[in-house]
Amino acid sequence: MDDETPTSSQTLRVAGAPRRMLAFVLDVLLLGVLGSVLGGVFADFFTSLGAWGRLLGFAIAAVYFALLDSRVALGGSIGKLVLGLRVVGRDGRALSPLRALLRFVPVGIPYFLHDAHLPLAALRMPWRALDAAAVSGLALAGLYLLVFNRASRQALHDLLCACRVVHRAGTPERRPWRGHYAVCALIVLFAALAPLRPSLPDGFLAHIRTPAPTIEMQAALRSQPWVEYASVRRSAALRYFGADVLAMSVRVVDRNLGAPERFEQAARTALLFTDDADALDMISVTLSYGYDIGIADRAVSRSQSHSVAEWRALIGPSAYAI
């Protein structure tokens, strides 16, 4: 079918949520293969990018969807075309590359910001609230619409760009319920306000709040010349068999992953900034070296896990001084 010819609403109908989700999974897998191939050739360059590697991955994914979901290709990404789906505007025509790019942005932002290596300032309010709204808020709002907007099956990025995903075996399109917009606004607002609620239970939203001592601990680790990035987590998700575990993940600037002094320095930092260190059952330190571009990552790592008493025995008196 010519991209300039309107698509008949009697021929193509809106695609259902399961088919669209499966198409997205296929696209993610394809992008992962592409990222891994590129990583095999440009591994050192990707590693040198550090936290900016996610921006490169975002750019690759943006070009992929901007071209394939537009009239430049066949109006659908590879995953969509495999399942018989296309992206069209209200007039039934394929999208322009710019419009397809804008459609990708609301999906790409939460995908590539999730677990990204952000500056320490981003862990504090109000930036933490913006990050939570962009990651959890947009992702949940988009998923909500895809599942519950049964009239048009338009997700958030579809509504923002006034387009839809169609399939011959789908259900007829109807105007979406206006209340969906209010629900999406409440979802994003709840995500933005969640960092203000320290009493939130551990789980899906646990990553969006970071206690002040944890921020200070990460700052102390990042000040070390051999550290590129460090993250610290202590939550129910990390309590193995009822044990209270403090997990420290440290990305280093070189391949020296076996240096005992680096493990000891990380554990020393944990002891210094954890007020109830004696309540911990275990401190786990993982040193890694490699790259993460969002669509693919490759790293080598080494870990050490000991009880607080064992770490203090390894570190000695220096456990109480930097």
Protein described:
Helix 1 packs across helix 2, helix 8 packs antiparallel against helix 9 and helix 9 crosses helix 10. The protein has 322 residues and is α+β, with helices and mostly antiparallel strands. The N terminus is likely disordered. It starts with 12 loop residues before the first strand and ends in a 7-residue tail after the last helix. It is elongated. The protein has a four-stranded mixed beta sheet. The protein has a three-stranded antiparallel beta sheet with strand order 1-3-2. Helix content is 45%, strand content 15%. It is built from ten helices and seven strands.
Overview in brief:
The chain is an alpha+beta fold.
List keywords for this structure.
322 residues; alpha+beta; 4-stranded mixed sheet; 10 helices; 7 strands; 15% strand
How would you characterize the largest beta sheet? 4 strands, mixed
Estimate the mean pLDDT confidence: 82
Helix content: 40-55%
Number of helices: 10
Order of adjacent strands in the largest pleated sheet: 4-5-6-7
Global structural class: alpha+beta
